[in-house]
Write a structure and sequence with these properties.
The protein has 291 residues and is an alpha/beta fold. The chain has 11 helices and 13 strands. It folds into 2 domains: 159 residues, D-Maltodextrin-Binding Protein, domain 2 (3-Layer(aba) Sandwich), CATH 3.40.190; 96 residues, 3-Layer(aba) Sandwich (D-Maltodextrin-Binding Protein, domain 2). The strands form 3 sheets. Strands 1, 4, 5, 6, 7 and 13 form a 6-stranded mixed β-sheet that branches. A 5-stranded mixed β-sheet has the order 10-9-11-8-12. It is elongated, with a radius of gyration of 22 Å.
Length: 291
């Protein structure tokens, strides 16, 4: 009986700890509003991120880096120099490759919170969050194992990819594109949902009958790491624009637009081009800059 009671107590304490940890993980993020920052001359901005190749990732030394990180560090420097305020950066890592949940947490956050992620700007999302001006014109690609014969055209995907299975995750622009292709050209397409992009990449690497739609950065990162990935240029979609995310009622949006437009425009600047080359590699950066 005594042993049973001890086990019960341990179980209750463990459950309480896990529940408390979950609440801490999924609580809202809070940053200082721009109005209060101006008034007080200082404030805290929260940079929240999921790790994503080239956009927000840890380098070999464990330091957080990436295109989104570089842009936002430049933003902080710009604001501090022009408006003579002191900004403290607080990094919040969402430790799951789960964009849907991460996005919903951003929606419910308050004040100076910025999502450092490769989020596609869509009319639907613009009703729920604020976006920075586009920081990159993305390429949504169709990707397979390198052993798969090249796709001739998207219209022929039912024939070229007959017997293959599509993999994606819910709530993403990539899922939406697969569903559009399924409706238009491949009604018998089988779609399997996996929780994380890393799971999808592992499936592509080992399965010659698997394909997916993913952002170009996953292919670029994989090729630099000698992964057996193949991009099918016939399936490239250049219509997506990526933006940094803020809560809908954030008062930092106008300042973000100002930063992107300053000094002739961020995306026209030499540091921006150097940034893409640094994180994507020369070949991939040239594709993104010259398309």
């Amino acid at each position: 009986m005594k042993k049973y009671i001890i086990c019960l107590v341990i179980f209750v304490l463990s459950f309480s700890f896990e529940e408390s940890s979950a609440k801490r993980l999924y609580q809202q993020w809070h940053g200082t509003s721009w109005a209060i920052t101006q008034k007080q001359g200082k404030g805290t901005v929260v940079f929240t991120y999921t790790e994503s190749p080239t956009f927000s990732y840890k380098d070999k030394t464990g330091k957080l880096t990436g295109v989104c990180v570089d842009i936002m560090q430049g933003f902080v420097k710009y604001v501090e120099q022009k408006y003579k305020v002191k900004l403290t950066i607080k990094y919040e890592h969402y430790p799951h490759d789960d964009f849907f949940t991460f996005y919903n947490l951003l929606k419910s956050s308050q004040g100076g919170v910025f999502g450092l992620t490769n989020a596609t700007i869509t009319p639907e999302r613009q009703k729920e969050v604020q976006f920075s001006p586009p920081f990159l014109n993305n390429i949504s690609i169709i990707m397979t194992n390198q052993s798969v014969k090249s796709l001739s055209t998207v219209k022929n995907i039912a024939k070229d990819f007959a017997g293959m299975t599509a993999y994606t995750n819910k709530g993403t622009a990539n899922e939406r594109r697969l569903l559009q292709i399924k409706k238009a050209y491949f009604p018998q397409m089988k779609i399997v949902y996996l929780p994380y992009n890393e799971d999808i990449l592992m499936q592509i690497a080992k399965d010659k009958k698997a394909f997916t739609c993913l952002d170009f950065n996953y292919y670029s990162d994989g090729k630099q790491k000698n992964k057996p990935f193949k991009r099918h240029p016939a399936g490239d979609d250049f219509s997506e624009e990526l933006g940094l995310v803020m809560p809908l009622k954030s008062d930092w949006g106008a300042l973000m637009k100002e930063y992107f437009a300053a000094n002739g425009g961020l995306r026209q600047s030499k540091p921006y081009k150097q940034m893409l080359t640094k994180h994507f590699g020369t070949e991939a950066a040239n594709i993104l800059l010259n398309k």
